[in-house]
Amino acid sequence: MRICLALAVTMLLHVQATGAPPVVVVFETELGSIVMEVDVARAPNTAANFLKYVDGKFYDGGVINRAVRPDNTVRKDVEIQVIQFQSDPARRREQFPPIPLERTSVTGLKHLDGVLSMARAGPDTATSSFSIMIGNQLELDFGGKRNPDGQGFAAFGRVTAGMDVVKKIQASPTGQTGAYRSETLDPPIKVLRAYRK
Known about the structure:
By secondary structure, the chain is α+β, with helices and mostly antiparallel strands. It has four helices and nine strands; from the N terminus they run H-E-E-H-E-E-H-E-E-E-H-E-E. 21% of the residues lie in helices and 31% in strands. Strands 1-2-7-5-6-4-3-9 form an eight-stranded antiparallel beta barrel. The longest helix has 17 residues, at 2-18.
């Protein structure tokens, strides 16, 4: 009862502060479920794009393919800790066009523990791949050093339940590249389904 009341108060405060309630999404993986709040008020374009992929069932049959941690990172200059999701590879040709980058300098969101963030190469290249932060990863914010262009990544929500599952995935076995551990999960962790709650 207390948890339900606390959740209701949190959602009410969020609605009062931003004008729009977050959208709750559940990702069921083979290691357990992760519940997320998608911030449609502060990151509207990124949130809408993500929800198109959820509603279109693109993540059903997808994978968590990458787990970055101190023992396997390939970037020693600016280390991060994340897990990364990919939509169903069989549906790559159906993906939507890339979206404009919603910078954290505009949204006010930060890459804190449990935050959702779109993966990208250059600015305005994000499609369906996204990461979950494990610990605060402020070098992914606008002006951070993780990406050479300094534009950062688009944060668009946060995990509200299931960080134990996120950490279990992060600790899963990764492959080997030469003498070094790889960031690629071996085997990848399957996404069974993703849906709005």
